[in-house]
UniProtKB/TrEMBL annotation, chain A:
The lineage of its organism: Bacteria, Pseudomonadati, Bacteroidota, Bacteroidia, Marinilabiliales. 4'-phosphopantetheine is transferred from CoA to a specific serine of apo-ACP by acpS. GO terms for biological process: lipid A biosynthetic process. Belongs to the acyl carrier protein (ACP) family. This is Acyl carrier protein. Residues 2-77 form the Carrier domain.
Length: 78, 414
C-alpha cells in the first residue's frame, strides 16, 4: 500500500469511525461507510490539510470512493 | 379548554455530584462539594483555576458511538447521557408509544462553547475555512434536535436559551405542551458544558465567578458574608413528563406532579439583578398562581442562590415580599453550594434536587456557611450545612438568568 493510501485510510477510519477492513478501494463514502454530506466535506478538507493541496469543489464532487480519493491525491501530489 | 395534569415519570442526570440520580442524591443529602481544580484544560494562568466538573464521563456508557461523539459537542453528549437514563428510568415502551405525540423541549444557556472556541482558535485569515460540523455542532438547539432523531419523537421540539433560566423555561414549556394537549410525552431538561478556557476567562472578566483557588470546596457559599462569586458547574438533568391519565394507565412510577411555572423579566440590567428583587417576586407569585396554590402551601424553595454578592441579597428580599410571614416557616436551600452553577442546566439539576427532596422528605443543605451576612435576614431558614428532615408537599425552584430572565418551577407530591 502506498504512503498516500495508508494516510487516506487512516483519516477515513478516524473520521467515520469505521473498521479498517471496511475501507477498501471500492468502498463508497456514503453507500458503504455511513458518511453523510457533511462527513464527505470534512473528509475532503482533511485530505487537503494532510497532503497540503487544494481540491476544488467540482473535483471534490467526483470523489466518492476510497480509491478515487487515493488516485486523485496521488495525481495531485506527483 | 380543559387543562390536563402533568407528571414526572423518568429522571436522569450527569452532574458534578454524580453520574446517576442515586449518586447525585447521596452526595446532595450528605453535603458534598463537587468543586476541584480544573482537569479539562491547564488553568494555571486563569484567575479562577477550579470548577465543579463532571467526573469519569464515558459517553459510550449511554449508547453514544465514538463517531457520534466527534460530531457532538460535550453539552450534547451530556444531554444524551441524562436523557438515556431518564428514558430507561421511565419504563416507557418506545415501540408502542405514539411518536407523533412525543416531543423534546431542551434548555441550553450557551450551547457548544468548546466547539466555537476550538474552531475560532484554528481560523486563519489566509485560509478562511471552518469544519462543516462547526455550525451544527455549536448551535444551542442541536441537542434537542438530535434527541428527536434518536428517539423518533416528531412532536413539539425547540430549545429555550435564557442563560441560567434556560432549563426551567424548557420544563415549563414541556409542561404546557402536555397540559394543553399538544403532546402526551415530553423529554425535557437542560445541559451545559462551559468549563473551558472561554467560559472561565469570560466569566472571570465579569467578576462573576469565585477566585478562591486555595480552597475550591468552600468557594460556593451562598448567603455567606464572604462569598465572592459563583463556581462554574457543568452537566445535565433530563426528565420524562407525561400526561397524568396515561401515566396512571400504564402503571408508571410517578415521582411528582409538575404543578406549574412562572416566568418574568427584571427589565433592569444586562447582568445585575434588580436589587429589590421585583422580577423575582413576580415570577414566584405567578408560578404559585399558575399552579393554583397559595403561599402557605409551599414547604421548600430551591433557590437560585449563586453565591454572588448582589444576587444573594435580592433573592431573600423577594422571598419575604412574596411569602410574607410564611417566608420564615418554609425551608430554603441552595444546592449550588454543592453542584456549582450549571448555567443553562441549573433549572434541571435543581428541579431534580427538588423532586428528590419531595420523594425523600429531606431538605438538602446549603453547605459552606461560616458567617452570617448582616444584609440577609438570618431568620430565614437556609438549611445551612446539614440536611433537614421535613415532609414536603410542594417545592418550588427558582432560576434567574443574565438578561433578567426569571423562571420558577412548582413540583407537587402526588
Amino acid at each position: 500500500m502506498s504512503d498516500v493510501a495508508a494516510k487516506v485510510k487512516a483519516i477515513i477510519v478516524d473520521k467515520l469511525g469505521v473498521d479498517e477492513s471496511e475501507v477498501t478501494p471500492e468502498a463508497s463514502f456514503t453507500n458503504d461507510l455511513g458518511a453523510d454530506s457533511l462527513d464527505t466535506v470534512e473528509l475532503i478538507m482533511e485530505f487537503e490539510k494532510e497532503f497540503d493541496l487544494a481540491i476544488p469543489d467540482d473535483q471534490a464532487e467526483k470523489i466518492s470512493t476510497v480509491g478515487e480519493a487515493i488516485a486523485h491525491i496521488e495525481e495531485a501530489t506527483k | 379548554m380543559e387543562l390536563r395534569r402533568v407528571v414526572i415519570t423518568g429522571l436522569g442526570t450527569v452532574n458534578p455530584l454524580g453520574n446517576t440520580v442515586d449518586e447525585y442524591w447521596e452526595n446532595l443529602k450528605n453535603g458534598v462539594s463537587g468543586a476541584a481544580p480544573i482537569e479539562k484544560f491547564d488553568a494555571a494562568k486563569h484567575k479562577t483555576q477550579f470548577a465543579c466538573e463532571v467526573k469519569n464521563f464515558d459517553p459510550e456508557l449511554y449508547g453514544m458511538e465514538r463517531k457520534d461523539c466527534r460530531k457532538y459537542d460535550l453539552y450534547t453528549q451530556y444531554a444524551f447521557a441524562s436523557t438515556d437514563l431518564a428514558v430507561k428510568d421511565s419504563g416507557l415502551n418506545l415501540e408502542e408509544i405514539d411518536h407523533d405525540r412525543a416531543g423534546v423541549i431542551w434548555g441550553a444557556g450557551i450551547g457548544g462553547l468548546q466547539t466555537f472556541f476550538e474552531e475560532a482558535r484554528n481560523y486563519k485569515d489566509e485560509n478562511p475555512r471552518f469544519s462543516p460540523f462547526f455550525i451544527p455542532k455549536m448551535i444551542a438547539n442541536i441537542a434537542g434536535g438530535l434527541l428527536s432523531i434518536k428517539y423518533g419523537f416528531r412532536g413539539p421540539n425547540f430549545t429555550t436559551v435564557t442563560a441560567c433560566a434556560s432549563a426551567s423555561h424548557a420544563m415549563i414549556e414541556a409542561f404546557n405542551m402536555i397540559r394543553m394537549g399538544k403532546a402526551d410525552i415530553m423529554i425535557t431538561g437542560g445541559s451545559e458544558a462551559g468549563v473551558n478556557e472561554a467560559g472561565i476567562a469570560g466569566f472571570n472578566s465579569m467578576r462573576a465567578i469565585s477566585t478562591r483557588n486555595d480552597d475550591p470546596k468552600t468557594a460556593s457559599r451562598p448567603f455567606d458574608k464572604d462569598r465572592d462569586g459563583f463556581v462554574m458547574g457543568e452537566g445535565s438533568a433530563a426528565f420524562i413528563f407525561e400526561d397524568y391519565e396515561s401515566a396512571v394507565k400504564r402503571g408508571a412510577k410517578i415521582y411528582a406532579e409538575m404543578g406549574g411555572g412562572g416566568m418574568s423579566a427584571d427589565a433592569f440590567h444586562m447582568t445585575a439583578p434588580d436589587p429589590e428583587g421585583k422580577g423575582a417576586n413576580l415570577v414566584m407569585k405567578w408560578a404559585l398562581e399558575d399552579a393554583g396554590i397559595t403561599v402557605n402551601d409551599v414547604d421548600y424553595i430551591n433557590v437560585h442562590g449563586t453565591s454572588t454578592p448582589l444576587g444573594d441579597i435580592a433573592e431573600p428580599k423577594a422571598i419575604i415580599k412574596t411569602f410574607g410571614e410564611h417566608a420564615y416557616k418554609l425551608a430554603i436551600s441552595s444546592t449550588k453550594s454543592m453542584t456549582g452553577h450549571l448555567l443553562g442546566a441549573a433549572g434541571a439539576v435543581e428541579g431534580l434536587a427538588s423532586i428528590l427532596a419531595i420523594n425523600n422528605s429531606l431538605i438538602p443543605p446549603t453547605i459552606n456557611h461560616f458567617t452570617d451576612d448582616p444584609e440577609i435576614d438570618s431568620n430565614l431558614d437556609f438549611t445551612f450545612n446539614v440536611a433537614k428532615k421535613r415532609e414536603i408537599n410542594v417545592a418550588i425552584s427558582n432560576t434567574f438568568g443574565f438578561g433578567g430572565h426569571n423562571a420558577t418551577l412548582v413540583f407537587k407530591k402526588l
